[in-house]
Amino acid sequence: MDKRFGMFIHFGPVTLRGTEIGWSRNKEVPEADYDSLYREFNPVLFDADRWVKTAKDAGVKYLVITAKHHDGFLLWPSAVSAYNIANTPFKKDMVGLLAKACKKQGMSFCIYMTVLDWHDPDYLIHSPHDTLHNVKGDMPRFVNTMKSELTELITRYKPDMLWFDGYWEKPWTNEFGRQIYQHIKKLDARIVVNNRLGKESEKLNENSVGDFLTPEQRIGNINMLEPWESCITICNQWAWKPNDAMKSLRECIQTLVKTAGGNGNLLFNVGPMMDGRMEQRQVDRLKQMGSWLSKYGEAIYGTKGGPYAPNEVYAATRKGSKIYIHLFKPVGGSLKLPALTGVTVKSARVLGGGTLKFTTADGLQITIPDKLPDENCTVIVIGINSDAEKLAVIK
Ligand code: H79
Prior knowledge:
With about 400 residues, the chain is of the alpha/beta class. It has helices at about 30-35, 50-55, 95-105, 140-155, 175-185, 250-260, 280-295, and strands at about 5-10, 60-70, 110-115, 160-165, 190-195, 230-235, 265-270, 305, 315-320, 320-325, 335, 345-350, 360, 365, 380-385. It is about 25% helix and about 20% strand. A 7-stranded parallel β-sheet has the order 5-4-3-2-1-7-6. Strands 8-9-10-15-12 form a 5-stranded antiparallel β-sheet. A 3-stranded antiparallel β-sheet has the order 11-14-13, with no helix packed on it.
């Protein structure tokens, strides 16, 4: 959780059509066409070191690659299923190359895998609009296949975290989830697993399977008890789409800040193009985020969220005896914060700038210049006389 910022990468043969990886097979793209795309999948300009460098320059601390998405295609050369990258014109082991580049550049390497597979005859559903009707399958055999795939992934590429998806599909059960979780932990007990292996998605409790919550395409609520990570796309689509609308720098930064302010991580998604490159405008946007983080990273990495819950004007993070207020807009001269009971405020300053006047007569009021030093998000550091991490959340 101290890493706070990860990069999600959605990639596969579907980029040849520019439709969504999660739900275009047998919908926007007819099944036979979709399942033949791998024969011309050839991302010749893929450069693992460059992807990882792009992540590093963005200030990202871990990377998650879609080794297997719902369409069943494997981005690694597998002995379990022939529907894999070794049988494309590209041939190379993309998962392996990325794992190696991450190791070289000091980036934590993680793997996405889904619990469904529309391509596998053993699985009971074969497209997003399919039902369980009249479909023959063999779920125990399917779960065994999944275990074998995971054994390959874990023993070869040593991921720090596994990010599962698809728990909502009817054929998947909590019991299958538990089996898979045990299988993973037996192979490598150090691996962190998200909560989408089990059917319980909203809470971590005795029914859930996995270690952290995963709100999708929304910023999670402030939660000091359960670890969580929001996955959110830089554009709209998970996989690459031509001319997809991209988020502004302001939105990107504030998404990260509001997430950290709620005590969560941001897993920010990029979908590279069919030739294997990330789009330059996305690379540029990520670099801008990295340049903001190089100034204000102290207020993000290794912090806890709160004590103030995030809102449209500011979010807060804390570390030791410091509270960081991330200010999104001018406040007409004075920022008024709810009082911190039992705490003495000792100082207020702009992170990387000068000191600020404050009073504690009525809540905590800090004098703020009308022109904010950083228009996307200005960080103010409040020094207090006690451990800020122990304060209760103020909503
Ligand atoms: O890989 C990306 C998507 O392709 C995949 N999840 C992300 C990480 C995905 N596949 N299908 N869907 C998303 C659509 C399913 C959405 C929902 Fe839900 C499932 C709505 C309710 C249950 C998960 C939990 C998403 C929102 C809440």
